[in-house]
Amino acid sequence: MINAVDGTIIKSTGSWYDVQLDSGRIIESRITGKFRLNGMRLTNPVAVGDRVQIEIDSGEAKGLIKKIYNRENYVVRQSPHKKHQLHLMACNVDQACLILTIVNPNLKQGFIDRFLLMTEPYNIPVIIVFNKEDIYAEEDLQMYSYLQAVYEAIGYTVLKTSALIPSGIAALKTALKGKTTLLSGQSGVGKSSLLNALDPSLKLRTKDLSDYTGKGQHTTTFAEMFTLSDNETKIIDTPGIKTLGFNNLTPMDVQHNFRELFILSSDCKFADCSHRDEPKCAVKKALENGEISDLRYNSYLQIMEEIESQNYWERHADI
After folding, report:
1. Which of 133, 88, 150, 95 is nearest to 299 (CA)?
2. How far is the C-alpha of 50 from the C-alpha of 192, rounded, in Å?
3. 256 and 230: one domain?
4. 225 and 151 in one domain?
5. Is residue 229 in some structural domain?
6. Residues 151 and 185 in one domain
7. How many structural domains are present in the chain?
8. Three-state secondary structure along 10-40?
9. Is residue 188 part of a domain?
């Protein structure tokens, strides 16, 4: 006898998915058939956070994913292995949390803006967390204060944390409480150690980054949803990201999703202003007046140039 039941994907290991049924039982399942996301080619048709229907044969311990329910939102990135395809990172999240460090490894500020370009189209709130504050020198703290001002000014929450400093952990725990959060960041920023500090019962594996810091390096190799001990906070932990490319975006996508530039664009002389060399550009004027961040603007220029350098077929190879 075959039973059709609903559940949520809580772990993805490639070809198999752990589906937690509404009853609480976890069934290892695989997918049948082909699924697309708005016509785009995906390396993974479903992701952690997806609500699905699976079929279970009464004589089997495994299930088949037969249906994917409508998503409230999703976070998608260019596949790191197949650049003409996209990879679903997570679905149906309340917010995202980007973990960074200013040192060890050194911060790449442009990575922040690239990450925000993945979440902004779906109005997913983002918490920007600078981890390992216990090893910050005075100049690192000054950099944190500067970046905090830049990103809070355009509506993002910014925190600093350390697995060794309770006050930062408490603030982060409050920001995550009762929500489903995608946790992401580059390799080595201490995500696993931070999760263990948030909830010691998780006991996630860490790897020593160096004798100097004694901090852990993120060792996740697949996406997984954890429910914290309060039973109402869910974290979708994902593998560390090395780089973020955007073969799937157009210049217009970039213009619309740098939020402070998009707001100002309504005052530009030309409706299709790219905010570079056009006359009477409200964005360039705001930049000259110090009203927007030159760091953000430079990230915008770099991403625009990168996307425009890709030919038509590269940008549309997923269709």
Report:
1. 150
2. 23
3. no
4. yes
5. yes
6. yes
7. 3
8. EEECCCCEEEEECCCCEEEEEECCCCCECCE
9. yes
CATH number of the structural domain spanning residue 266: 1.10.40.50
Determine the pLDDT at residue 316: 55
**Could you give the CA distance from residue 11 to residue 52 in angstroms, rounded to a whole number?**
13
* Confidence category of residue 204, pLDDT binned at 50, 70, 90: confident
Report the chain's mean pLDDT, rounded to a whole number. Answer: 89
Phi then psi for residue 137, to 5 deg, are -85, 175
Q: What is the pLDDT of residue 246?
A: 84
Question: How many beta carbons lie within 10 A of that of residue 298, not counting itself?
Answer: 14
- The vertex-62 CA angle with 183 and 45, nearest 5°, equals 45
Helix/strand number for the chain, H first, E second: 9, 15
Q: What is the pLDDT of residue 244?
A: 83
Angstrom distance (rounded) from CA 37 to CA 179:
25
Cβ(19)–Cβ(29) below 8 Å = yes
- Is the separation of the CB atoms in 270 and 248 below 8 Å? no
What is the torsional sign of CA 117, 118, 121, 123? negative
Determine, yes or no, domain membership for 244: no
**Domain shared by 67 and 108, yes or no:** no
Q: Where in the sequence is the domain holding 42, given as residue range(s)?
A: 2-75
Rg (CA), the chain: 21
